[in-house]
Here is the input.
Amino acid sequence: MVDAVKLPFGGLPTARISGFVCLSVLLATGCGTVVPHSTTTGSGGASAGSTNIATGAQLGLVWSAADSTLRPLSGVPGSTQLGAALFPSGTYVAGSFSAQTETALLIDAKGNLQWMVLPSLTPQTIAQGIPSGASISFSPKGGNAVVFAPGTASLLTISGLPQQALVTPITAGNRVVSAAISDAASLLLATSAGNNSFAVTDTTSSGTRTTLATLGGFGGMTFLAGTEDILLSDSVANTLSRFHNGSATVLATHANGLNQPFAVAASQDDHWAVSADRADTNLLRIDLTGATAPAQATCSCTPSLLFALNGNAVFELSPPGNAPGWMIEADDPVSRVLFIPPARGGQ
Here is the structure.
């Protein structure tokens, strides 16, 4: 857990994270505020009314950028159905869901960050003043999250999920390109470093900060579930590396099929990693145990994300909406790239 310290105006603010300062202006409720979970009432959140999530096999809730809705994805990989929107289109401008903790974080048009834990469909407002264009990233097991606006220095971390939401605002010294958070609340930041390069730093919850790498191009990063190990890609060098205790091991290169990677994800059992390319429609699966060689899979789509769905190694590649979406199931003997039907008419 990260505890920020708020100093009087006019002084230089400090924090227990080296290189970060508390941004109390972002929160109406103050810095490091704990909000308990309520299944019956909201705090400025939108209600879904009579909308319900179907019982049975569920892959989680998925965000559809096409109409700005959050929808349940039911079924199993290879046989799925996209459900009706939980909230009216346009109620929120961004959203994300952790299938591990059944927790959703949503941002509305006024910049309010709202929190919802299933089976409740009544979000609670936990922070205000979120910059436009902000992104949301959960830790692998969903107990922590980070909210950041690419191109700015503003971030929020949320810990204690799903039982409560401890919200801590911080800022980075440079413009943030991307951020990730571990299950132990370590914060991984990629920031602009000048000359079209990117600096990647890892700050533990106790405040120890390590500079991991300087990248020619940002190609994606993530923590492994339940560990402090990091996967990091360079989109110019076409490399994917694993960092353990600050030391890097290259897992894949252009020779294995990396072609301008933009995202990387890992399975819940830390056996598999998947990298998505920007220059083609290929995906690369890497065996983190080293038992098998990296193997390519191709999507009949243009992958735009690697978002963890319910399952050990199931990741959304392109969001469904009015058009179909796609996913990959990476822990089969051969990775399966699977179709997600679009929303039914009128939904």
